[in-house]
Design goal:
5 helices; single chain; 41% helix
């Protein structure tokens, strides 16, 4: 299975937004927007907002990308991912991601 690992360890290759973007699939954009309204508590999420190639890949990004504190922190420290940071086990920024998506931490550990 293809893996495109984000700064926080999520696998962008399995992300509905990335898949919809790469396939230019408007129906998947609609489905994803509706799902994310609830899952991520973004009531104004629209299908037009679902465009992303992945935070570490060339191309379009979700609006959240420019203000993602996890990505900004990794970049500030000169890291490609949080897996390079010795503070990963105690980081309050990334802890919620790894609590809800334990595979993200495993993805980061597998990169090293």
């Amino acid at each position: 299975m293809e893996k495109v690992i984000s700064c926080c360890g999520l696998n962008c290759a399995t992300c509905e937004a990335r898949i919809a973007t790469l396939k230019n699939d408007d129906e998947l954009r609609k489905i994803t927007a509706e799902k994310w309204k609830t899952v991520y508590n973004v009531p104004d999420m629209s299908p037009e907002m679902i465009n992303c190639t992945g935070c570490r890949e060339e191309g379009v990004k979700l609006a959240h990308w420019s203000m993602c504190q996890i990505r900004l922190c990794a970049n500030e420290k000169g890291f490609k991912t949080c897996g390079e940071c010795k503070e990963i086990g105690t980081c309050s920024l990334i802890a919620p991601v790894h609590k809800s998506m334990p595979d993200a931490l495993k993805n980061l550990m597998d990169l090293n």
